[in-house]
Design brief:
The chain is about 15% helix and about 45% strand. By secondary structure, the chain is an alpha+beta fold. It folds into four domains: about 90 residues, Sandwich (Immunoglobulin-like), CATH 2.60.40.10; about 100 residues, Sandwich (Immunoglobulin-like); about 90 residues, no CATH class; about 30 residues. It has a five-stranded mixed β-sheet with strand order 9-16-15-12-13, with no helix packed on it. It has a five-stranded antiparallel β-sheet with strand order 18-19-25-21-22, with no helix packed on it. The chain has a four-stranded antiparallel β-sheet with strand order 4-3-6-7. It starts with a helix and ends with a helix.
Amino acid sequence: MKRTVLAVFFTVLFLLGLIILPNACGQITYPSPYWNYSPITPRMGDVVTFDASDFERTWNEKGESTIVSLVWHFGDGASATGAFVTHTFTSPGMYLAGVTATDNRGYGGTSEFEIEVRKQTEVTVFLSLSGGSIYTGQEVTIGGNLTYNGLGVPDALVLLSSKTYVEGAVWNDIAKVKTDGYGTYSAVWKPTYGYYQVKAAWAGNSTYPETSVSVILIVKGFGNLITDFSSNSTISGLNFNSTNRILSFSTEGSSGTNGYVSITLEKEPSFDPQGISVLFDGHPIGYDIDSTNQSWVLFFSYAHSLHTIVVDFSVDETREVAFPTLQFIAVSVAAAAVVAVAVLVYWKQRKQQ
């Protein structure tokens, strides 16, 4: 009888190990950094920006681990650290640049791109964006200048165009802008969701040869809840945490004028728009909710100044009740069986004494 009880006891322990060990030895996820650089057609002497801040923020929001180090190499012997860095290549050529991300567990990963650096020319068109990464509904300001041997080229038409990173995509015109007396130009563009290459091109004339330059623009979405965002204020620091559904940003405008924010939300059956919380400089404010066939529109206004706004979409959201997983139930049953067998062995030994 005692051998039978012991056999059952060790069988249960073996089964318990089969359940627990695979979970304890789960697969390790290593950081896999992604990044962008701008301009993507750099010339020697240009200041090139390298940005992995979106990767760092997204990875840290997962909660699996935290990125503690981002180390860049540029293929010319130089290096830098941080999520956003700049570098200037002093010679034309092909360079293998990359970044290594390391998390608080000591695990790391590296990604690299080959960058072609061109020679500097007499005629140069420069292009910059007010933000290299924006959200759907935001506007981006495109600015730059056209120079010849460092001096601005006035009254020249610069063609601004964009192309998405989709197979078969073609260049689409954004605007034609004329340079001022100093050779500078500016335009405002409101792109839709996507990953863009934005180009400024000068066709040239009998005096100045043609030239062009391209940069990258990432237009991010807000997930399944927010479909559009608009405001007449200058918006900065816009960020949406899709895990806890909190939108935060800062607004600024001319004193004596009024600003507004309008946010379009997809109608979700489990979501109560009346439970949204809007904090204006740390204090709750009221808002209006209008309903359409497919959407809710959240609207609030304010007097212009520098303000910090946090919109919490998670309040009063219907949440599912968490039930024990199958693995948890199996572990609990096995543990109870071990305890039962141990008690049975104990009482058997007492009866035999």
